[in-house]
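dumping this here before i forget
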Amino acid sequence: MTLRLGDIAPDFTAVTTEGSIHFHEWLGSSWGVLFSHPKNYTPVCTTELGYTAKLKPEFDKRNVKAIGLSVDKLEDHHGWSKDIEETQGAALNFPLIADADKKVSDLYDMIHPNASDTFTVRSVFVIDPNKKVRLILTYPASTGRNFDEILRVIDSLQLTDRHKVATPVNWKHGEDVIIVPALKNEDAAKLFPDGWKTVKPYLRVVPQPKG
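structure:
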C-alpha cells in the first residue's frame, strides 16, 4: 500500500511496550508521529529513540504523541530500552510497536525490498487529529533522522492550518511567514490589519500570526 499526503492513516491494533493499542483510538484528538527503525540493539536507532524521549516536553506542548516501531519482538524492546536509558540518559516515555509479523510495516509500506527485504527503513509519518497523513519522510538505515526538523514541520503545519499563511525556506517558529497567494489583498487586510511587505505581488511577507 502506498500512502500519500492527505490519505487517512491506516488504523491497526498492535502490541507495544505500553500494552495493546488501537492506533486511531490511541491517537484520540492528538497529532501523531509514527516512525520505524530498522532493528533493535543498533547504534543509530539507540540515539534516535533516546533523543525522541528527551523531546517529550516539546511534543506535549504541540499536542503530539510519538510512537516507534520495529519488526523485533516485544521482549527485545524491553531489553533494549534499558540500553537506551543507560547510553542516552533518557528512559523511553512513548510506546514501541512490536511488529514481528510485519502487519503495520506492510500497511505503511515501511519495508523497501531494494534496501532490505527484512527490516524497515527509517520512515516517519506525521498524522493530524483527523487521522490524515500530513508528512512522509524516508531515510536510509545508515542515516539518523533530524527530529528537530520534524518538530519544525509540525509547527508549520499547525500554524498554516490556523492561518492563511505558508512558511518560507528554513522557517522556524517566530519568524516571518508568507500570505497564501489565493488570498486577495482586500481579504488579507482584514486578517493582517498591521499590513505586510510586498516583495512581489505573489510574495507578501508578514510577521507570524499569534494564536
